[in-house]
Amino acid sequence: MSKASKSSQDSTLVQTIGPFRILKTPDPNYFRVTGLNRTPKNFKGKKHGKGPLQRAKLWCREENLRLQGSHQVGQQEHHFLQLALEYGRETGVNTTHLADLLKPANELLQNALDDLRAGADLDRYRPTVHASAARYYEEGENDKNLLGTSLRDRRLCCDVIQETLGPFFLDELDFATIELWHDPNKKSDEITVPRLRGDALYRNKILNTLATIYKRAGSVWNTVPKGWNPCEEIKRSPVIKKRPTTWNPAILAESLDFLEHLAIQPGPLQAPRRNIEALLFVVIGCSTGLRSSEIYGSVGSIQDDRPHTPSLRWEHIDWEDRRIEIPIDVATKVSGGRFRTFYFTPRENSGYPQEICDALWGRFCHYLQPYRQESGPIFTTPAEPQRRASSQLRKAGILTGEPPRKWPKNGLRHGIISAMLCLGVDIAWVARQSGNSEKVIEDNYDDKALREAEARALLGMD
């Protein structure tokens, strides 16, 4: 057995600090530190020589620490160089530059080693899942190239991760725990962990976000060992694609009439604002096919310091040119520029006829004009208008929770897309209007999903 193997067997992992592992040996006063495994660009070649590394080894011997492996110092893992400069400086080394570069990492590791010798608990040095998710979201906030939808998705995924796994330490989660958290069908009598809820696509999305957090923690933040990611080997749940469901045209018309009645009683200016917003949400959805998050923004975050994402505003509607300009911070997917535009006017070579445009614009104006304002957000109450509308329709017996009287998931959006395809609108134009790629439309929608009469009714043409 080699000396290195014997040494590894005689050591017990005590703590992980950044890219380092601190191991306890049979000698209670002896600790071994590992984790130096790469040669950085900044310290290659004869120009720098071996002075800094030799100093690191010397200091480690004096402090009863031992370097393991190739003794090469990584570009992001060169904490010992600063330790060497602090405890034994020699001439000919640019100590000022190295000290400025390595001081924060040195202080963290040095404090950890001091506390370890004193018998203190090192948990305060360990990154929690909650703090790591918050850090990942903050990086997205500072990334100017990240589109509005990507930041919203990141925030919502981080919120779920914080809510379910927040108290755990990032380095204590293992394959079995994360697998149990991700898979609702998995059972265990030994592990207790909150479970993810939702369909397979949603749970896979959350798991992928956690996997990215581990990658950042290992390769950029140095808060877990580099390359260690317990999410990578977990099988993603199989996603079963279902044909998008749409509203029944008769039930949609009945719902619009009922919500309009609620909004105007005893008058447009005196009705509870939440009833008005419930109507506006359904009208905008069935007239444009915008996503729910594009209409009223995202729901509130569990983080108090994270504001709601923006919702559609009155000034985004161009009443003269019959279009809605959806800014980049509202639009879910933007191909470039400041806006994604939904048009209520025919476009050349699009198969988007005047008849469809007039029907959609007529319905849109009929319901929104009484509440029209020059500027400001369309949705101002904290309650989600879709939930409010669904609740009111269930109380009235219009929706029952069973098909066909069940609110179809994203049914307003699916109805617009399916109806346009059915009536011969060019798929490229449908993709542009809906903010999707042509491939997404081709893969998920069928131009024969609706009969022509149903398509015309959904678009308000009959």
How does the major sheet shape up? 3 strands, antiparallel
Q: From the helix content, strand content and strand pairing, which structural class follows?
A: mainly alpha
Strand order of the largest sheet: 1-2-3
- Strand count: 6
Alpha-carbon distance between the two ends: 84 Å
Strand content: 5-15%
Radius of gyration: 30 Å
What's the helical proportion of residues? 40-55%
**Order of SSEs:** HEEEHHHHHHHHHHEEEHHHHHH
Instruction: Using the alpha-carbon principal axes, give the shape.
Output: elongated
Low-confidence stretches: 1-9, 36-53, 66-102, 299-307, 333-337
Mean pLDDT over the residues? 75
Q: What is the secondary structure topology, with strand pairs?
A:
Layout: H1 3-9, E1 12-17, E2 20-24, E3 31-34, H2 51-62, H3 79-87, H4 95-117, H5 129-141, H6 148-165, H7 175-182, H8 200-221, H9 249-264, H10 273-288, H11 292-296, E4 317-318, E5 323-327, E6 339-343, H12 354-368, H13 385-395, H14 411-422, H15 427-434, H16 438-444, H17 452-458
Antiparallel strand pairs: 1-2, 2-3, 4-5, 5-6
Helix pairs in contact: 2-3, 3-4, 5-6, 6-8, 9-10, 10-12, 10-13, 10-14, 14-15, 14-17, 15-16
